[in-house]
From TrEMBL:
Pfam families: ADH_N (PF08240), ADH_zinc_N_2 (PF13602). It comes from Longivirga aurantiaca. This is NADP-dependent oxidoreductase. One of its GO terms (molecular function) is oxidoreductase activity. Its EC number is 1.-.-.-. The keyword Acetylation does not apply. It is an enzyme of class 1 (oxidoreductase). The keyword Lipoprotein does not apply. It comes from the Bacteria. Keywords: NADP, Oxidoreductase. Gene3D superfamilies: Medium-chain alcohol dehydrogenases, catalytic domain, NAD(P)-binding Rossmann-like Domain. InterPro entries: ADH-like_N, ER, GroES-like_sf, NAD(P)-bd_dom_sf, Zinc-ADH_QOR/CCCR.
Length: 315
């Protein structure tokens, strides 16, 4: 089968088209014929070697195959399944490239059945953008534990992850103060932000102008770290999407968020599909490229300015 991966860490050009053996599903697993795989910042971290320690800890050997999200069709079901999934079902999956099963840049992948749920309506390209960012956004809001009517700050609100945070927060009755570059203001408003402030190093002051006492919690999808702390109330909380933990003044608590522990939370994955079908979560595809153009997709993502997700087509 075809796959795109790497044997040496480095820039986008280390990605190569590979011919690998077809995986076989074991007990409690399903095999998916992948139609679309979203390209995420975490894919570029794997390729660059910034997650090499985690690959080694999990016993993953090269070639390394990136890709955390997949949409496709169930191709085979291993023994011992619960009957929830059948051959031919259109599905989405939480894929774990930092695992011996490897990532979604491949014609066929094997995943635990618990990580696989029915696909939302629409195209496979759209469906492939949902799961990992949706899980991360849900968990980030859970860590903040805000009540309806409280104020949430969001940086990086126009991005795929930040956009989901805005939409879920608005749906849950939070007052959302989000940042945006000038060209993204209308997009962020459409996503559900109640107040939009200028993106950049002065974001804390801009959010304080809207919420003088400070926002009750903040999700830092733009990775601004200490620059966002001034926006938050004393003893408030900040969730970082890339592992930053502070230090922080005024009793502010900084918590990192990781979607991986919820990769087999079937109920959560199903709820995200339901929210997408209800129009609460927008599945935004920036562009679709063939699998063989994975390196070009990585270059575009790292150049910045992508709104929505770049998606690799494997159909």
């Amino acid at each position: 089968m075809r796959a795109v991966g790497l044997t040496t860490f480095g820039g986008p050009d280390v990605l190569r088209l590979l011919d690998l053996p077809e995986p076989v599903p074991g007990p409690g697993e399903v095999r998916i014929r992948v139609q679309a795989a979203a390209v995420t910042p975490s894919d570029t971290l794997i390729r660059a070697g910034l997650l090499a320690h985690r690959l080694a800890d999990e016993g993953v050997e090269p070639p390394y195959i990136p890709g955390w999200d997949a949409a496709g069709v169930v191709d085979a079901v291993g023994p011992g399944g619960d009957g929830r999934l059948s051959v031919g079902d259109a599905v989405v999956a939480f894929v774990r490239p930092i695992h011996p099963c490897k990532g979604s840049y491949a014609d066929l992948i094997v995943r635990p059945a618990a990580s696989v749920v029915r696909a939302p309506s629409g195209s496979a390209h759209e469906a492939s953008t949902l799961i990992v960012n949706g899980v991360t956004a849900h968990l980030a809001l859970g860590l903040l534990a805000l009540e309806p009517g409280q104020t949430l700050g969001v940086t990086g609100a126009a991005g795929a992850f930040g956009g989901f945070v805005v939409q879920l927060a608005a749906h849950r009755g939070l007052v959302v103060v989000a940042d945006a570059a000038p060209g993204d203001v209308e997009l962020v408003r459409r996503l559900g932000a109640h107040h939009v402030v200028a993106r950049g190093p002065a974001v804390s002051g801009a959010m304080r102008a809207v919420a003088p006492d400070g926002v009750d919690g903040l999700v830092d999808a733009a990775l601004q770290n200490e620059l966002v702390l001034g926006a938050v109330v004393d003893e408030g909380r900040v969730v970082s999407s890339r592992g930053w933990t502070g230090p922080a003044p005024r009793g502010i608590e900084v918590r990192p968020v990781s979607a991986t522990p919820s990769s087999e939370d079937t109920a959560l994955l199903t709820s995200l599909v339901d929210l997408a079908d209800a129009g609460v979560l927008s599945l935004r595809v920036a562009d679709v490229l063939p699998l063989v153009s994975a390196a070009a997709a990585h270059r575009r993502l790292e150049a910045g300015g992508v709104r929505g997700r770049l998606v690799l087509d494997l159909a």
